[in-house]
Amino acid sequence: MVESTSSRWLVLDGYEDEPAAFGVPPYVGFHIRYLCGVLEQAKIEYDYFTIDQWRDFIRTEGEDAAAKRLSDISGIACIAGAIVPGRYLRGTPISLKETRNIIRQLPANIPAIFGGWAIRGWRQQGWNPLRSNLFLAVQDTDATLSNFIQTGQWKHCRRTAEQWTQWAHSGANSKAVTQHPDLGDEEKRGPLTYEVEVYQGCVRYKRGCKFCIEPKKGVPIWRTPEDIIKEVRLAHDSGVEHVRLGGMTDTYTYMAEGVKELEYPIPNPQPIAKLLHGLREDERLGILHTDNANPSIIAEHLEPSEEITKTLVETLSDGAVLSFGLESADPNVHQANWLNCDSAQLKSAIRLINKYGKQRGERGLPKLLPGLNFIAGLNGETSATYDMNLDLLHEIRNEGLLLRRINIRQVEGEGFQEIDSELFSKFKNTVRNTIDGPLLEQLFPLGKKLCNVHWETHDGRTRLAAHQTESHTEESCRGNAGITFGRQIGAYPILIGVEYHIPLESQSDIIVTGHGARSITGVEINLDHNRVSQKQLEAIPGIGEKTAWKLISQRAKKIRKSGDINAYESPMQLFEAANVDWDSDFSVFFE
Ligand code: SF4
To answer: Among 198, 333, 553, 559, which is least packed by CB within 10 angstroms?
Structure first.
C-alpha cells in the first residue's frame, strides 16, 4: 500500500463529456465517482475539486497558492473528458493547457494519474509529457489507480465486475457527490444530475459502425437492475435527486436476447422495466432521463420495442430524448461504413416513439421524442448524400413526426474522407432553417407554459464566478435590467432566455414568448402587479417600453399618495388607472 500521510489525495474532476457519459455540471460523471470510490474503499483521505473550483482557487488565491496546494498532496487523480472543450453553460472541461500547468507545478515525487478520453486524444495528437510518477491511463483509470495503491506500480488495468459494483456504490456517497457544488443542501437543492452507468459496449460488436470505438469493447457487459438501483439509492442518501441512465449505446438492447448469435438481438422488456420501475419506487427520485437507442433494433422487433417504449413513457420524466444514430441516409455510405440503420428502419422507429411519446407531461414537454444524429465525412459521401439526408428529414416532417434534436457533426478519427466544408455548412444551415426552426415552434409553441426552469446565468451564455454571489442570487435582483438564461433539468434541455434578471439558482415557470435559432424566450408567470419592475413589464409581449414606464409611474404616484405598497387590487385596476388598454392575454403572466 502507498503510505497514507497527513496530506490527502486530490481528485480533480476535469469533466467527461461523451454522448453516453455526461459529466459537465450539472451532471456528475461516473468515472470520476469510481476514482473517488477507489479511495473510499482504500480508506485514503482525499479532497474533490471540480476544474471550475480549481480555476476559482487560482483566480482568487493566485498561481503560487495553487502550486503550494499541489506540493502538499499525497497524489492527484484526474479525469479529462473533452479533447476540444466546447461551449458550455455551467462548466468548462479541463484543457490541455491547464493539464500541462498542473503537471508542471506538481513536485516530481507526487504520484499523478490522468485518464479519460481527452488524455487518449491528446496523446494521439502527440502530447507525451515526460515526468516520473505520472501515469496516463488508457484503460480503466479507477482500476489503474487501485492497482497503484495496492502495489506502488503503475500498470494499465481493467476493473473486474466486482470492482465495478464496489466502486460504483462507494462512489455514490463519495465527495464527488456530497461535495459537488451543484448538489445544494436540504433547504435549496441544486440541479445536480447523477449520470449512472448501465452497461458497456454495443450489440454490434462483431461488425459495428466503422467510426465508433464501442465495438472494440467486445461483448456488452450489463450491470443488473438490482446493482444499479442500489447505487442510485445510495446516491439519494447523499442528497441526489435527478438521474440520467448513461453508458447505454442502446436502451432497447439492455440485457437483450441473442446478443452473440443475432444481427438484431431481441429486446427484452423485463429487465429495463424492472430497472425503471425500481428506480421510480424511491420517492426521492426527481427527473429521470435516459440515453441512446438503436432504430434498427426497434424496427426489426416492433412488438417488444413497443412494450419498452410504453415503459419509458410511464417512468421517465417529460422531455426525455432517445438519440438515434442514423449518421447518413445514403445507402452507399451506409454500406461502406457498416452503419447501423437505414432510412426505412429509422422512420419506423420514429413513428413508434412518436405514437407514445408525443403527449406532453407535467413540465409542459413532450414525454419522449427521438433525436437524430448525422455524421459528415464518412466514406462514400458525395454531394448527393446531403440531398438524401435533407429529403429524409423533409419526409419525416411531412408525416407530422417530431424530432427533439438534430445533431450534425464531422467524423473523427483516421481513414475517412475530407469534408467539403461548403456543402457541409450549406446542409447544416438548411437543416437549421427549414427543419429545426419549425420544429422548435411546434415543440415550444407561443403561450405554452414550461415548468421548473432552473436559472443559471446573467447577460451571457456562460456561468461566471460572479454569478454565485449575492448580487446575482438574492431576491433583490429580480426584475433588474439584463437577460437571464436557464434550462429545465434533464438531457438536452432547451435554452430559455428572459429579458430581465431572475435570482440565479432559483426555479420558476415561464410562458413561451418567442423563438431564437436554437433557444426560446419567455416571461415568468405569477408576476405581482404591485411589485413588478419596468423591465418585467416590457418583457410581456404587447407592452412596450413607453407603456411599461407609464404603468410604473402611475403605481409610484399612487404609492406616494397612499403610502400603501399594495397600491392596486388587480393588474387590470393598475392598467385602467394608467389609461392603458388591458388585453386578456396579459392575465397569464400575473398572479
Ligand atoms: S450502433 Fe452505435 S454504439 Fe454500436 S457501433 Fe454503431 S455507433 Fe457504435
So the answer is: 553
